[in-house]
Model the fold of this input.
Amino acid sequence: MNIEFKVRDFCLRGKLHLPKNKRPALVIGSHGLEGSMNSAKQMVLSRLLPENGIAFFRFDHRGCGSSDGDFIKETSLEKRTEDYLAAVQHLIDLDLFSGDIGLFGSSMGGATCINAWNLLEQMEVNLRGGVLCSAPVRSRTIENIPVQANDSRPALPLTFFAENLLFDILDKAQDLHHVLVFHGDRDEVVPVSNALELHDRMRSPKKLIIHKNGDHQMTDKGDQDEFERETLSWFLSICKA
Done:
């Protein structure tokens, strides 16, 4: 199901994947810095979760994919968080779900989920937990900053990162609970130290899976298979408890 919602003057677009059962729990995804709702992990979840009775919503943040906005002008952790909060509220307003909400975020999407957590609780959203992959909690640790131009955007000046993407959200990890964290110990973009610090600060229940020789994109087939198994098990346990 195609979904559109507004954030300020921007129209954001996404896809809602519904299971056959009525009023299911809902998981909402947030993609990485230069990703989209069509990222590999979200495509997996768009199939896997509805097959097992849980709805999944994926969308493009402003300036990405099919959504409105200029990537350079409209990309920051704060704006991504605003997008995410609006997505959650819009889906709740559809009144199709049980009320149980799970979060999914990969890379910067993981940071977005962490940053949004307490704000969602203030909105009285019934957060059941989440799954985070390769999430940075200290932006200054990020390596291999993507400044070169590509097919979807011009070259990025270093000032873009200095002005828009400097953050330290480790203290916000203490709000998290019922969260599963994945990270590769050879992540070439977000050092695995981020996952270790994040897991240490989160509240129980929690789980950390470190992929040996794993990279940022989780390209190893064995790691991908484990991601599917463990993520499904985690969401089934927290959303149908």
User: Anything to note?
Assistant: The helical segments are 40-51, 71-74, 77-93, 108-122, 158-164, 193-201, 221-239. Residues 94 and 237 are 24 Å apart (CA to CA). DSSP finds seven helices and eight strands in the chain.
